[in-house]
Amino acid sequence: MNNIKLNKELILSLYETMLKIRLFEKTQERVFKTEQEGFTHVYTGEEAIAAGVCANLNKDDYITSTHRGHGHMIAKGGNMKKMMAELYGRLTGYCKGKSGSLHIADFSIGVLGANGIVGAGIPIATGAGYSIKLRGTSQVVACFFGDGAVTQGTFHEGVNMAAAWNLPVIYVIENNLYMVGTKTERVCKVCKNYAVKAQGYGMPGEDIDGNDVIEVYTATKKAVERARSGKGPALLNCMTYRHSTHFVGDLDVRDKQEIEYWKARDPIKRIEEKMLKEKIITEDKIKSCRDKIQGMVDEAVEFARKSPVPKPEVALEDVFVE
Amino acid sequence: MKTLTYREAVREAMREEMRKNEYIFLMGQDVGPYGGEHRVSGDLHSEFGEWRVKDAPISEQGIIGCALGASITGCRAIAEIPFMDFIMLPMDQICNQIAKYLYTFGGQASVPLVIRTAMGGYIRAAEQHSQCLEAWFIHIPGLKVVIPSTPYDVKGLLKTAIRDNNPVIFVEHKYLYGMKGEIPEEEYTIPLGVADIKKEGNDVSVIATSYMVHKALNVANKLEKEGISVEVVDPRTLVPLDKETILKSVEKTSRAIIVHEAPLRGGIGGEIAAIIADEGFEYLDAPIKRIGAKDAPIPFPSVLEDFILPSEVGIEKTIKELL
User: Which domains are present in chain B?
Assistant: First the structure.
């Protein structure tokens, strides 16, 4: 665990965000199987990245998200009721129930969309950075994507443009070692120390422990400050591991020992241990915190269950705007 | 009135709109000081500066993705893809992202952007610099498709496209850039979804797009002297499509020929023919005919390219067969 000293309130708030994501996702895994349609990709195991990155962002800063996007939404301040309603395909959901788990967005808090196409969000984030430059604001963009997206052309194109024009974008790789069921190292020579790629584009890059929320927070802070002051983009390669399969219900071909290794490095367990050791929190407080957040998640599920199903005609809305 | 080329009309539309809204920007390869691969952007860089007329790397996915990201965060992007053939590179950004952004997120974010691109052959540019791909985009819900044939139309339609809150695929034609036409001194716009009767006639309706409008007009003028009255209808926009004007013309003439430069198979002609068959069958005195490129890639030497692409001789022959 990183030894950098952060104040107690900040650590507690990072912990709370991670816990929100974890309990939302554990609940989602359960209710998905019996109560929802389609597919869902959960973020369990990777919570430190969304929490650590987004704690550095203001409400009007932007993020682009991925197919595994629930964690990003929660960390950016998304409404769990509207999220869960979307997962249930209900009219009260973020997208009127049209798009489900893959495509949650909340433009009012700068979430420019989760995306079903791997790597597609990268040039979109670059464009949001361009817009910031053109409009002359001090906003920044955090662009989340996985190790599997780095082999896409959009990575090369989007990152190069941001570097060429000093755009305020932080590219955050959630490096969980796998594409769907295949290890990225089977198809990519440089895939663990992506920071070296940043150098090739002329921007700073850092390989960090993505399961250490304090390290993620600290590295992002530096990148965000740099971006806000007009010095351009940065790349953060956050090593992590997803506890779940690619999507809920998918075949798990991963090595059991590998899974155990990473579960022992669970980001939430680690921050809890640190907080207990440093007496930032007590066992009782952890329990009450978990109970409180589980209550919020349960309320979100209830809200979704009671929400109206869209009328079929809703499928024809929003193709064009006036 | 003043006389401008099609190229100048495009530039003037951008200039006028960019003067009105400081968050409109043009991005593309070579659009800056160089003035554009087809010399369309010209001096815009010197008027609007680095951030509003932006030279992009040769990264079509990057350019179009960047245009999208900027357009959902308070700007209006005009992205230039100088040859429509290159639009295949950013197809994910156009069809999976841009076209669906409004819909996917339940109406939260509109995408006010224009992708300007230049299609077309007859310039001996071979297989990868000559194609007409407009039909691909009418198949994707969420995109508007504009395909102007004259300097007057291109200016008025581009101004409307830039102001539209939806994404517009704006298809110019390379062969038309040098064509001159009359343009009013005062400001004007042309609404999307309104076809234009380029020449009135009574015997046959020729529904033609882009450069083919001019070929159809040449044939119509020639046949007029032979006593054949051809009506030339230019839809101008394919999405939205002005069905009413097309059907009204067919009702008058009882005969319909659709001419486009893209390959016949899967072209816009099939869609328009189907609309006439569905909604105007009783007007028809003859089968609906379609004219398009032969179903082969576009070779470069004139002897081969002219054989593949539609010709005035071919249009004339089809009209005479139908009468």
Answer: 2-183 (3.40.50.970), 196-322 (3.40.50.920)
Could you tell me the CATH number of the domain that includes residue A212? 3.40.50.970
Helix residue spans in chain A (DSSP H) = 8-35, 47-54, 70-75, 80-87, 121-135, 153-164, 195-201, 213-228, 256-264, 267-277, 283-306
Q: pLDDT-based confidence at A196, cuts 50/70/90?
A: very high
Contact A94 B108 (CB under 8 A): yes
Answer yes or no: is pLDDT of A129 > 80. yes
What tokens does B178 get? 């040098």
Nearest Cα of chain B lies from the Cα of A265 at a distance, in angstroms, of 35
What pLDDT shows up at residue B118?
98
Catalytic site positions of B: 129
Q: Write down the ipTM of this complex.
A: 0.96
In a domain, A225, yes or no: yes
**DSSP characters over A209-223:** ETT-HHHHHHHHHHH
Pairing of strands B237-239, B144-146: antiparallel
- Give residues with Cβ within 8 angstroms of B225, minimum separation 6: none
Note whether A318 contacts B75, CB cutoff 8 Å: no
- In order, the DSSP letters of A235-269 are EEEEE---SS-SSTT----S-HHHHHHHHHT-HHH
Closest-approach residue (CA) in chain A for B25? A134
Report the gap between the CA of B281 and the closest CA in chain A (Å).
28
Residues A33-47: tens digit of each pLDDT: 999 999 999 999 999
**Mean pLDDT across B238-254:** 98
The residue of chain B with its CA nearest to that of A112 is B72
Residues B296, B308 contacting (CB under 8 angstroms): yes
User: What is the overall mean pLDDT for chain B?
Assistant: 98
- Fill in the DSSP letter of residue B158: H
Give the CA angle between residues A250, A79, A119 to the nearest 5°: 50
For residue B97, the 8-state DSSP code is I
B103 close to A (CB below 8 A): yes
Q: Is A12 within the bounds of a domain?
A: yes
pLDDT confidence of A6, banded at 50, 70, 90? confident
Nearest CA in chain A to B99: A319
- Which positions in chain B touch A64 (Cβ < 8 Å)? 69
Number of Cα atoms under 13 Å in the Cβ half of residue A6: 23
Give residue A2's pLDDT band: very low, low, confident or very high (50, 70, 90): low
Q: What are phi and psi of B212, to 5 degrees?
A: -65, -20
